[in-house]
Amino acid sequence: MNAFSFRRLWALLRKEWVQVRRDPTTLRLIILMPMIQLLMFGYVINSNPHNLPAGVLMAQPSKYERSIVTALRNTGYYNIRMVATEAEAEQDLADGKLLFVINIPANFDRSVDRGESPSILVDADGTDPTAIGNATGALGGLTNTLRRDLPPNLQAGPAPPPFRFVIHARYNPEQISALNIVPGLICVVLMMSTLMLTTLAITKERERGTMENLLAMPVRPIEVMLAKITPYIGIGYLQVVIILVMAAVLFHLPIHGSVVLLLLVLGLFIASNLALGITYSTIASNQSQAQQMAQFTMMPFMMLSGFFFPFQGMPAWARFIGEAIPTTHAMRIVRGVLLKGNGIVEIFPDLWPIGLFMLVTVTIAVLFYRETLD
Amino acid sequence: MSDGPPELAIDVRDLHKSFGSRVVVDGLSLQVARGEICGFLGANGSGKTTTIRMLCGLLVPDGGSGTCLGLDILKQAPLIRRQVGYMTQKFSFYEDMTVSENLTFVAEVYEMKNSAEAVRRIMDRMGLVDRADQLAGQLSGGWKQRLALAACVLHEPKLLLLDEPTAGVDAKARREFWDLIHDMAVDGLTVLVSTHYMDEAERCKRIVYLAGGKLVVQGSADEVVAASSLITFEATGGDIDAIARQIRKRPGVQAAAVFGHVLHIAGTDRTQLLAATRACADPNIAWAEVRPGLEDVFIHLLSGTEGAG
Question: Which residues in B lie closer than 8 A to residue A22 (C-beta atoms)?
């Protein structure tokens, strides 16, 4: 029997395609999944939330309080209420009832009137940096708010701003750049959907009893694998296009590099995920086992790829594992191409590891693919 | 390897197969001549399916050797698969594909010349033309078996391995199925078919009976009956169900089974059987010795294996 036959591969491909078409529920899921995930992740993680609960704590009554509160409200980011005591403010911040506490210090009015440019301390809940990022950013523009309320002598000449904000990000001083998220999201959504799809491929044959028949026929393992992977590459591309269009329209994702290059590279990334799925499918003895393997993989892949936490901030061993994950490299490539306009030369160092990963997983899958029922 | 076609389509010796500590096939030797229809019988779990799977290379035997169509079952399994049509016990074609899609897939995978023509021919022969565009999953049991058979013979194999092909299929469909098998045997196809049905066993040229992974008896239906040295008495009239319950407990009565209006008792000791019939005397009942049927022999064999463990 010849080692490889394009005719057999074509027959297997047609069979897979017919089966994909006959399962409209899965097809609908395949199209809806990236949309829902993008919307979910996009708005949950990369949100620019408004009307965040903020408390104003005054050490003593201030004539400027009204102007400051109005200015804060006008940014749209703050939903202001007054807080009576420092203890209450501290408690509400800890409970998450307040995301900000704005402390107007004692003798604030006098300091402003003297042109001493006093500080207003803003305690911010830093556990979710993206949530407070834009709100704190807006504070910088407010420092001139009081200029027209100032005594005439201070209004005249150039002077330091009437007061300053000192922002104290509590609990988590690190902040993630919002632009990081959408390109990362493209990779994570692709990883989740394509991995799930093929994980079931071979176990499904085994559970439906069709594997025995397939084994009795003269098909080679590599032909079966390729036939299982190929239709989903097409489907993966459909997802990429959906995500890119949605990201451009909804999240105003800038595209500085070549979209063609991006699509080519993502093809390899999709294939590497599918290869991993096929490998799980070959090793697992039933569908739920295969699914658990896939779910177990997604979490560390997301964590260690630099999607949630900055890659540079991870310990050496975690970065070492992260380097082996295709998602890590794909994310760098997508960020590089979309945001920095990188070309093939710049992305190559992240391209070959994906190819290597795919080669290794396909080899494992072929080795584990049993041509007998033993 | 051999010159000219070998006489035996299947020639395997001393096959062994265990799954963990469970011995499933235990020193089985089997010879099937070319063009023969060989019935494979035995209780559930007697090793029929495992043997069939070893013959077509789906399982690797733990011990033993032999040839299938003149090819070594250990070393040339892929070549054997090309020439064997294997029909699994459970329907194993794609239920989400139509009849013609399934058949086309098989034809293409076997790289048949003019596969479209071959598919058309087989659908015609099996009467599947009207159902060509129906999903396999929507076919009834009988039609599914027909599709499976069509797919198995599509690539013109020299040997058919059928694993309980008619389980759960109605009598008419079974009859038609066997007519097809006999037609194909006329063309020189060798068939090894496992079954639990006596009428099907009687349609085989030769019967092989397995128990506990060993070959217990083989030969034509008549030979198998003769080899059993079984003596059968038949009772008619009266309350035979009550008699059956009583007589089953008598010494020497190895089996007592009611077939409609008649009761068959069977054993190997004539004296004890006669004593049993006298003990259960009933004026309404007439006893007569009859030639044992295949069914009596198999019930006898089945109860024997249960007794043995």
Answer: 96-97, 135
Q: Does B278 touch chain A (CB under 8 A)?
A: no
pLDDT, tens digit, 9 for 90 and up, residues B31-79: 999 999 999 998 888 999 999 999 988 899 999 999 999 999 999 988 8
Residues B79 and B216 in one domain: yes
Residues B158 and B55 in one domain: yes
Note whether A355 and A269 are within 8 A (CB): no
Tell me how many degrees the CA angle B170-B172-B178 measures, rounded to the nearest 5: 100
Which residue of A12, A15, A214 is the best one to mutate when testing the B interface, meaning the one whose CB has the most B CBs within 10 A?
A15
How many separate domains does chain B show? 2
pLDDT greater than 90 at residue B105? yes
Question: Tens digits of per-residue pLDDT, B281-300?
Answer: 777 888 888 888 888 888 88
Question: Quick check: is A373 in a domain?
Answer: no
Size of interface A-B (CB pairs under 8 A): 78
Last residue within a domain, chosen from A170, A203, A235: A170
- Kindly state whether residues B129 and B42 are assigned to the same domain: yes
**Exposure string for A20-53, b = 16+ CB within 10 A, e = fewer:** bebeeeeeeebeebbeebbeebbeebbeeeeebb
Closest chain B CA to residue A206: B92
Q: Cβ distance B253 to B247 under 8 Å? A: yes
Q: Are B105 and A4 in contact (CB under 8 A)?
A: no
B97 touches A: beta carbon within 8 Å: yes
Instruction: Single out the residue in B224, B240, B257 at which a domain terminates.
Output: B224
How far apart CA B230 and CA B217 sit, in angstroms, is 13
B220 and B235 in a single domain? The answer is: no
Report the gap between the CA of A306 and the closest CA in chain B (Å).
Answer: 41
Give the domain CATH number at A60: 3.40.1710.10
- Comparing alpha-carbon positions, the chain B residue that sits nearest to A374 is B59
The parent domain of residue B87 ranges over: 8-224
Residue B17 and residue B129 share a domain: yes
Residue A16 lies in a domain: yes
- Which among B213, B220, B161 is positioned nearest to B27, based on CA atoms? B213
The series of mean pLDDT values per 10 residues for chain A, 374 residues long, is 83 90 80 76 61 84 80 84 86 79 85 81 73 74 70 62 71 46 80 84 86 88 86 86 83 81 91 90 86 88 79 79 92 83 87 94 86 75
CATH of residue B263 = 3.30.70.100
| Residue A374 located in a structural domain | no
Chain B closest-CA separation from residue A228 CA (Å): 15
Q: Could you tell me if residue B127 is inside a domain?
A: yes
**A218 and B81 in contact by Cβ < 8 A?**
yes
Single out the residue of A62, A121, A113, A61 nearest to residue A90, CA to CA.
A121
| Predicted confidence (pLDDT) per residue in B229-258, tens digit | 888 998 888 788 888 888 888 888 888 888
CB within 8 Å of chain B, chain A residues 156-215: 208-213, 215
Chain B residues with beta carbon closer than 8 angstroms to that of A1: 78-79, 82
Q: Are residues A204 and A301 both part of a single domain?
A: yes
Provide the number of structural domains found in chain A. 2
In a domain, B80, yes or no: yes
Q: A4 at the B interface (CB within 8 A)?
A: no
Q: In angstroms, rounded to a whole number, what is the distance separating the alpha carbons of residues B254 and B308?
A: 13
What angle, 0 to 180 degrees and rounded to 10, lies between the N-to-C axes of helices B141-153 and B99-109?
20
Q: What's the domain range around A113?
A: 52-170
